[in-house]
Amino acid sequence: MHDAIVIWDLDDDLDGNVVHIAEHDLTKDDVLDALNDPNMKTDVSRSSGHAISFGETSDGRYIAVVWELVEEDPLTIYPRTAYEVPRPRSRSKRR
Q1: Pick from 18, 38, 12, 36: which is nearest to 82 by CA?
Q2: Closest by CA position to 9, among listed 1, 19, 52
Q3: Is the overall model pTM greater than 0.85, yes or no?
Q4: pLDDT at 93 over 80
Q5: What pLDDT digit, counting tens, does each position of 8-38 carry?
């Protein structure tokens, strides 16, 4: 999502996405790192129905970013939350 426009609430908005992400010990830069990770995977969150992307931060943490599509052209998204998750286990070939 290198070209996506990301919408952030004010840093001091207690109900905003920046504060919510910070509650999970993450920053806006961490979210952007994960969204720009070339190995990022995107799916649909089973709990919220929103898009959820999984990627790595610059310091090596693997995080999930739950986001909403605001506009398709230009691609504009609103991250609702982000949090650290376990890395998926690699699938070994069955013998």
Answers
A1: 18
A2: 19
A3: yes
A4: no
A5: 999 999 999 999 999 999 999 999 999 999 9
Taking 3-state DSSP, the helix, strand and coil percentages for the chain, each rounded to the nearest 5, stand at: 15, 35, 55
Q: Tally Cβ neighbours within 10 Å of residue 3.
A: 7
The position carrying tokens 């952030």 is 8
Closest CA to 83 of 57, 59, 49: 57
* pLDDT mean across residues, the chain: 93
Q: How far is C-alpha 36 from the geometric centre of its chain's CA atoms?
A: 10
User: Tell me, what DSSP letter sits at residue 19?
Assistant: H
d(CA 76, CA 44): 17
